[in-house]
Amino acid sequence: MRKRAAFEINYFYCPSCKTKLEFRRVEKKDVLACPKCSFIFWNNPKPVVSALCVQDSKVLLIKRGRKSGSYKYYWALPGGMIDYLEKTEKALDRELSEETGCKMEDCQIYDAHLIVYSPRGLHKKSAYTSIDIVYLVKLKKINDISLLKYDPSETANIAFFPVDKLPKKIAFGHREIIYKFFRKQ
Ligand SMILES: [Zn+2]
What we know:
Layout: E1 22-26, E2 29-33, E3 40-41, E4 46-52, E5 54-55, E6 58-64, E7 75-76, E8 79-81, H1 88-100, E9 104-116, E10 129-139, E11 155-162, H2 174-183
Parallel strand pairs: 4-10
Antiparallel strand pairs: 1-2, 2-3, 4-8, 5-6, 6-7, 6-11, 9-10
The site of zinc ion (ZN) has 8 residues, from loops.
């Protein structure tokens, strides 16, 4: 059995029958598989949703807080994971509300892209990937952005940025998504 690379996921036992997993060559890929039952750990990308909110040619970004699992204090589009049985638009509405205090009026699917997480440094290989479903979101009117309520340990700050003055540290390939959107305007 080949050795596990440092970036690979630390799962050791079959979740169905508790047998120790081994690498097996399946469809030209090395995958962790159970030698006893049919379980194969494919490590498929996890779907996430993100909100692209543009007002007066400015884009809404959140600064990730100290409790963020990855990319602490990086800026990003608001968004996150989808709960079990949750519809994508519901997840979008929930994450937007939790992370910014903003309310969604309307949304439509804009784009989807692959995110490669790099918890051990920006240019290292990663154990996890996501598919980010990006929605173009129309927000309900914001009277005063400083009065919006969100958990400061999850979101350190929120702000609207013009496309030519985006912050330096932007996570999840969201800079490219924003540029792509403004190029088409
Ligand atoms: Zn098994």
